[in-house]
Write a structure and sequence with these properties.
The protein is α+β, with helices and mostly antiparallel strands. Among the domains are: 219 residues, no CATH class; 207 residues, Valyl/Leucyl/Isoleucyl-tRNA synthetase, editing domain (Isoleucyl-tRNA Synthetase, domain 2, Alpha-Beta Complex); 45 residues, no CATH class; 60 residues, Ubiquitin-like (UB roll), CATH 3.10.20. The chain has 29 helices and 35 strands. Strands 24, 25, 26, 27, 28 and 29 form a six-stranded mixed sheet that branches. Strands 2-1-22-23 form a four-stranded parallel sheet, sandwiched between helices. Strands 6-5-7-17 form a four-stranded antiparallel sheet. α3 crosses α4 and α26 packs antiparallel against α27.
Length: 945
């Protein structure tokens, strides 16, 4: 790629790519040397009372920090980073103390996979990638406070990640207080008798093991043997969000199976209501809020217990009023009671269709489970697939009718949703109806369908029917749905058969990974297997060196395989002697590691106080940068910019951790991110030859509406940018060809920041020529001298300047960078028509340009005679008196067609405007008398003739 310089002789002082490169590198060195963008803290090592913004109104601007891949940045990656940099630079010039830093989300699978392939330690490759990203971001002129940069792999950082995990582990959620509290307070309540134990026995009469189990069942971080997403091909379990819609891993595209495995979980479901309610306090895009609401999926209904010979089966239903129509039950194949319920032989009279052709219930269950494990959740829940299942050989009792209902397992019920069991009411549910038809099960209608209904399952409203048990004091017949729900819940609670309940689609957060490259858990196990938290003084628990970075992987379809972690092979690290306050003892370390999401749940807090070795963040610094602005304000970062793809995963997890820290008094804000802005994507064209192979995009030319590589026509596609598509353009390429400032201006001028847009290298030259015009407005290309005059600007130029100043300020506040740049182009073009540029226009133009093209703006500012950086110069303010137009031009329509224009004084009366308009179109009226003349002030005049 070559610089887009004009042909022929180049004036010696023209703004070229070579000059841009020299200017940019010199100013980047100056900013770094002088700490230009260091933001002062209220207290601690980063406090600076002499800073030009010390004590000013604060503004915290945050980017979703990147994962540093070996490929480095392409032009799509820094779109949001340049946007936040422009916004932060403007706000700094507008008088605010701006914190803007950049860190790196550096744990994770890609570096580990590269380590497995090459034998290179993941820290080595990751640190090299971080250095590469830092250099690329520096080359783009980012105004980050480099003292605050963090990486999640730094032990000084993940020490505090482990500390936060311990805060979660040592807490429980008090449903009465609606907040997390320390586990020590829970134990004190049990011991003092103010909180009853589950079985009513006094706390002191329980064994230590029994006490531990009760406490562990309350903890916000706990170990559970639960259905998880097991990926044999990766050798690890995955969170629901890391599994694609077709049931494969989002990394590697391996099959994923449901398995019951012991894993660390986080009780995010305890915060379901608060995560929902507090969305209303956030300045976030509505589509993101909707995605979170749908993911949390709050449902109100009842838990109902159906007695069996083994134990009650609890179901959750949003329609408890239909319980009289529950003619069978369905359990997920993984449900914990299935094995106990299934007898050795089929009960007498079992229908052949219920057995699946197997000789016993246990054989049927085993075969069906194996088949279900190979299906994705999406496949299992599909409404179009044929309903399958087997009878487990046992019955439950419907608590309202007393009748016996058969229990099936079927793959359309998932263990991870609700209770993993449903009461099947085929008359009111289409899937249940389809299942009942396949297995010849009774169908009892409990809601009277509306007139004219001729379908099968009726899901609408109507009065209850067939819903009375007089001998049990229960009669719902004739009641509407809402009243029937209230009546049945009251009866269930009064008779010990259930309770009103709220459930969530949200599942507890699976927090274990069978990897090496992640944060170790600060947990050990004693000889009884009890989980024991390490004391804070033993943090960080550092990752040990290992010879083999890979977990044991298996054939992708080996669903029965079991995890084996890399850390488990370091027995000298796993088995350790520690004194935890009661003398030296042998313990076993946890050999799973935390997921990559752990560090990204709180990194914004560490930017506030990155050198603090006593706390994860000083309380005063946290209050200053993230505290609430007023009563009821949620607090948090003032602007958070990143991709919409993190709408659920990262944002939900981070909100949960932050709320725990808030409940425990560690932070003053109850939300981490007050305002969220999702930038769009930069997409690119790719080109495919007749053989279906991608060709180098930069070598393709357009001729007569088609695209050619040499003489061969190729097909154009539009979408992502990537190496495999041979359409990658890097910022390095752009900086070499045009300079970083041109690249920044082009990306910000392509369209609204929130909208995706196509990359077009050929169009970059427009931004390059704009900067050349700005340069020429200040510097003579032949002599290098200023072409700026101290003579006052003419009235028209002065009015245009203040119109642009006012517009650019509004655009910068509203993150409308493309329209701000358009206004600067308009002003610059006006200056090219003048013999010399008035200083009163040149200086505001340079200052307004600075957020977008900071290097050339600094250079011009210095040449204009200023010694200090313009980073803290006051952003121009418009003179309101000059924003009032002296005249207004009205287009004049006759019967809907513009026939003339008239210019009148801005304060002209309506009668004067009407008279001037009629005079302007007198000839067009050709003597016709106008029937009506409508004046729309400052816009147009419409004449009906």
């Amino acid at each position: 790629m070559s610089e887009a310089a004009p042909a022929g002789d180049i004036p010696p002082y023209r703004y070229t790519a070579a000059l841009a490169d020299e200017i940019e590198r010199r100013w980047q060195d100056t900013w770094e040397r002088e700490g230009t963008f260091h933001a002062p803290n209220p207290t601690g090592p980063l406090a600076d009372p002499d800073h030009p913004r010390a004590g000013a109104e604060k503004l915290y601007v945050l980017d979703m920090f990147p994962y540093p891949s070996g490929a480095g940045l392409h032009v799509g990656h820094p779109l949001g980073y340049i946007g936040t940099d422009c916004f932060a630079r403007y706000q700094r010039m507008a008088g605010r103390n701006v914190l803007h830093a950049m860190g790196f989300d550096a744990f994770g699978l890609p570096a580990e996979q590269y380590a497995v392939q090459t034998g290179t330690h993941p820290r080595t490759t990751t640190e090299a990638n971080v250095a590469r990203y830092k250099e690329q971001l520096r080359r783009l002129g980012m105004a980050h406070d480099d003292r605050r940069s963090v990486a999640t792999i730094d032990t000084d950082f993940y020490r505090w990640t482990q500390w936060i995990f311990l805060q979660v582990f040592n807490s429980w959620y008090d449903q009465d207080a609606k907040k997390a509290r320390p586990v020590a307070e829970l134990i004190a309540e049990f011991a003092g008798g103010t909180r009853p134990t589950p079985d009513g026995r006094p706390w002191a009469e329980l064994t230590v093991a029994e006490q531990r189990k009760i406490v562990d069942d309350h903890r916000l971080a706990y170990v559970s043997e639960a259905p998880v997403n097991w990926c044999p091909g990766l050798g690890t379990v995955l969170a629901n969000e890391e599994v694609t819609a077709d049931g494969r891993s989002d990394r590697g595209n391996f099959p994923v199976f449901k398995r019951n495995l012991k894993q660390w979980m986080m009780r995010i479901t305890a915060y379901g209501d608060r995560l929902l309610e507090d969305l209303d306090t956030l300045d976030w895009p509505e589509p993101i809020k909707l995605m979170q609401r749908n993911w949390i999926g709050r449902s109100q209904g009842a838990h109902i217990d159906f007695p069996t010979a083994v134990a009650p089966v609890r179901v959750f239903t949003t329609r408890p009023d239909t319980v009289f129509g529950a003619t069978y039950m369905v359990l997920a194949p993984e449900h914990e009671l299935v094995d106990a319920l299934a007898p050795a032989a089929w009960p007498e009279g079992t229908k052949d269709a219920w057995t699946g052709g197997h000789t016993s219930p246990r054989a049927a269950v085993e075969a069906y489970r194996k088949a279900a494990a190979a299906k994705t959740d999406l496949e299992r829940q599909s409404d179009t697939k044929e309903k399958t299942g087997v009878f487990v050989g046992a019955y439950a009792t419907n608590p309202v009718t007393g009748g016996q209902v058969p229990i099936f397992i079927a793959d359309y019920v998932l263990a991870g949703y609700g209770t993993g069991a449903i009461m099947a009411v085929p008359a009111q549910d289409e899937r249940d109806w389809a299942f009942a038809e396949v297995f010849d099960l009774p169908i009892v209608r409990t809601v009277q369908p509306a007139d004219g209904f001729d379908g099968k399952a009726y899901t609408g409203d109507g009065p209850a029917v067939n819903s009375a048990a007089p001998d049990r004091g229960l009669d719902l017949n004739g009641l509407g749905v809402a009243d029937a729900k209230a009546a049945i819940i009251a009866w269930l609670e009064a008779n010990g058969h259930g309770t009103g309940a709220v459930t969530y689609r949200l599942r507890d957060w699976l927090f274990s990974r069978q990897r090496y490259w992640g944060e170790p858990f600060p947990i050990v196990y004693d000889e009884t297997g009890a989980t024991i938290a390490l004391p804070e003084e033993m943090l960080p628990v550092e990752l040990p060196e290992v010879d083999d970075f890979s977990p044991k992987t298996f054939a992708p379809d080996d669903a029965a395989s079991n995890p084996e972690t890399p850390l488990s092979r370091r027995r000298d690290w796993v088995e350790v002697e520690l004194d935890l306050g009661d003398g030296p003892k042998r313990y076993t370390r946890e050999t799973n590691v935390m997921p990559q999401w752990a560090g990204s749940c709180w990194y914004e807090l560490r930017y506030l106080d990155p050198t603090n070795s006593d706390r994860f963040v000083d309380a005063e610094n946290e209050r200053y940068w993230m505290g609430p602005r007023a009563e009821g304000d949620c607090g948090g970062t003032d602007l958070y910019v990143g991709g919409a793809e993190h709408a659920v995963l990262h944002l939900l997890y981070a909100r949960f951790w932050h709320k725990v820290l808030y409940d425990l008094g560690h932070v003053s804000s109850f939300e981490p991110y007050r305002k969220l802005f999702n930038q769009g994507m930069i997409q690119a064209y790719a080109y495919v030859d007749p053989r279906g192979s991608y060709v180098q995009a930069e070598e393709v030319v357009e001729r007569d509406g088609a695209w050619f590589l040499g003489d061969e026509e190729v097909r154009r596609e539009y979408g992502k940018m990537g190496k495999s598509l041979k359409n990658v353009v890097t910022p390095d390429d752009m900086c070499a060809a045009y300079g970083a400032d041109t690249f920044r201006v082009y990306e910000m001028s392509m369209g609204p920041l929130e909208v995706s847009r196509p990359w077009e290298t050929r169009a970059v030259v427009g931004s390059y020529r704009f900067l050349q015009r700005v340069w020429r407005a200040v510097v003579d290309e032949q002599t290098g001298e200023l072409r700026v005059t101290d003579a006052p600007a003419d009235e028209a130029t002065r009015r245009l300047l203040h119109k642009v100043v006012d517009g650019v300020r509004g655009d910068m506040e509203g993150i409308r960078f493309n329209t701000a740049i358009a206004k600067l182009i308009e002003l610059t073009n006006a200056l090219t028509r003048l013999p010399a540029t008035p200083r009163e226009v040149a200086e505001p133009l340079v200052l307004m340009l600075a957020p977008f093209a900071p290097h050339v703006a600094e250079e011009l500012w210095r040449r204009l005679g200023h010694d200090a950086s313009l980073a803290y110069a006051d952003f121009p303010v418009a003179d309101a008196g000059l924003l009032v137009a002296e005249t207004v031009t009205y287009p004049v329509q006759i019967n809907g067609k513009v026939r003339g224009r008239v210019e009148v004084a801005a304060d002209a009366s309506e009668d004067d405007v009407r008279a001037a308009a009629l005079a302007a179109v007198e000839s067009a009226l050709a003597g016709k008398a106008p029937r009506k003349v409508i004046v729309i002030k400052d816009r147009m005049v419409s004449v009906v003739a």
